[in-house]
TrEMBL record:
Residues 12-303 form the Amidohydrolase-related domain. Belongs to the metallo-dependent hydrolases superfamily. DHOase family. Class II DHOase subfamily. One of its GO terms (biological process) is 'de novo' pyrimidine nucleobase biosynthetic process. Its cofactor is Zn(2+). This is Dihydroorotase. GO terms for molecular function: dihydroorotase activity; zinc ion binding. Substrate binds at residues 16-18, 42, 137, 220, 252, 264. Catalyzes the reversible cyclization of carbamoyl aspartate to dihydroorotate. GO terms for cellular component: cytosol. Zn(2+) 2 binds at residues 100, 137, 175. InterPro entries: Amidohydro-rel, DHOdimr, Dihydroorotase_CS, Metal_Hydrolase.
């Protein structure tokens, strides 16, 4: 039995770092294990222009612990007023690595997102031309559509027509939660990949609702039934290069989650690598952990893989139950088991 696993240093292809005191509190949790992360732009106000992204990047670098080498990969928040030329300039300089599509109202801070998809076609055409990926929060917001169906309906009514209209557009379906998404990605000829979160490999909707409501398991897209969870586990551990890690680690202070209308997001930065090693071992795929966390993402984003390594060691190790920032406590995701692995110091 292997007791030590050395992998190339992982990257997180979907991360929320927030701003201000929360940024200071959570950034070390990611920077400890991850070399780079695609940083989500859903701040208030959102990161819309190249100038916004440059300023946010500076704030992240300033918040880094002394001697930290973490590299934030910036994204722009797509609005109906986004200027294709600004996007192209920000991409050409290497500042921006993707543009994020939030259907208006789909998730946390998505009010400035897209309502009329016709309005963003010129930006998407420019992105297709320059090869800049579009990351999607893939859920429709139609009130009549059941919340558990919103990802599948998004694929059929928004994503598939869009990809047929602009086949050269390179898309990353973020935080997929359904076997429908897994099947759709597997069937694609080109220009489509997906991130999978740590928590969606560990929980299904029973974990949220059975035995009392668990606000810290509530995220968007909401976890689906166990058959979907199984499909995600198979996809993540399959070795298929179109699936890679995006933790969607999304900190909210406890009072904002443990209340009458709790907000969506699981905070997994602290223990993601230990949980993933545990899950991959359960799936008999420990030898594929590195490709999921450290190889497939750079390949899709056309970036070099990391030269540094991360060492995982068999055996449990305590991690904090909460991260205590100046804004208040943030509960670390509880996988419901003690991970059989930990990251070496
Ligand atoms: N995933 C979540 O449940 N929440 C994210 C937003 C998002 O990624 O959709 C957040 O910003 O809190
Ligand atoms: Zn999202
Ligand atoms: Zn997210």
């Amino acid at each position: 039995m292997t007791d030590t696993l050395i992998i190339r240093r992982p990257d997180d292809w979907h991360l929320h770092l927030r701003d201000g005191a929360m940024l200071e509190a959570v950034l070390p949790e990611t920077a400890r294990h991850f070399a780079r992360a695609i940083v989500m732009p859903n701040l208030v106000p959102p990161v819309v222009t190249g100038a916004d992204a440059a300023a946010y990047r500076d704030r992240i670098l300033k918040a880094l612990p002394e001697g930290g080498t973490f590299e934030p990969l910036m994204t722009l928040y797509l609005t109906e007023d986004t200027d294709p030329e600004d996007v192209a300039t920000a991409a050409a300089s290497g500042l921006v690595r993707a543009v994020k599509l939030y259907p208006a109202g789909a998730t946390t801070n998505s009010q400035s997102g897209v309502r009329d998809f016709r309005k963003v076609i010129p930006v998407l055409e420019k992105m297709a031309e320059i090869g800049l990926p579009l990351c999607t929060h893939g859920e429709v917001t139609t009130p009549e559509v059941d919340i558990f169906d919103r990802e599948a309906v998004f694929i059929d009514t928004v994503l598939d027509p869009l990809r047929k209209e602009i086949p050269e557009l390179r898309v990353v379906m973020e935080h997929i939660t359904t076997s429908d998404a897994v099947d759709y990605i597997r069937a694609a000829q080109a220009n489509l990949a997906a991130t999978i979160t740590t928590h969606h490999l560990v929980i299904n909707r029973n974990h949220i609702l059975v035995g009392g409501i668990k606000p810290h398991y509530y995220c968007l897209p909401v976890a689906k039934r166990a058959t979907h969870q199984q499909a995600l586990r198979k996809a993540a551990t399959s070795g298929d290069a179109r699936f890679f890690l995006g933790t969607d680690s999304a900190p909210h202070v406890d009072p904002a989650k443990e209340c009458g209308c709790g907000c969506a997001g699981c905070f997994t930065a602290t223990n993601t690598m230990a949980i993933l090693a545990h899950v991959f071992e359960e799936e008999g795929a420990l030898d594929r952990l590195e490709s999921f966390t450290s190889l497939h993402g750079p390949a899709y984003y056309r970036l070099p893989v990391n030269e540094e390594t991360l060492t995982l060691v068999r055996g449990p190790k305590d991690y904090p139950a909460k991260i205590l920032g100046k804004d208040g406590p943030v509960t670390v995701f509880d996988p419901g088991f003690v991970p059989a692995w930990h990251v070496a110091d």
